[in-house]
Amino acid sequence: MEKELPLCPVETALMLISDRWKILILRDLMNGTKRFGELKKSIGTVSQKVLTSQLRQMEANGLLTRKVYPEVPPRVEYTLTDLGYSLEPVLQAMRIWGEGYQKSRKE
Hints:
By secondary structure, the chain is of the alpha+beta class. The protein contains 6 helices and 3 strands. It is globular.
């Protein structure tokens, strides 16, 4: 059963990406497909359990796809969907705002 979306479009967007790890996952996948280990290493302090949970939520929401290769050990790759890539302007705006904020705090 699909969850009902909020009436406010901003709240809908926040519902999908309002987590520190989801934003960093999106940031890293904007440059292309990554394996689980690559994501964990680039994100840093996230636990394997939390990263797995966040990736599953993002897959369920249609932001990324997960491909499992039948190898030993298994290889799993994550790639943004077109919907996930459509968040690029949002991430760019957040980056620009963050840079401005950092600069203002140094002055």
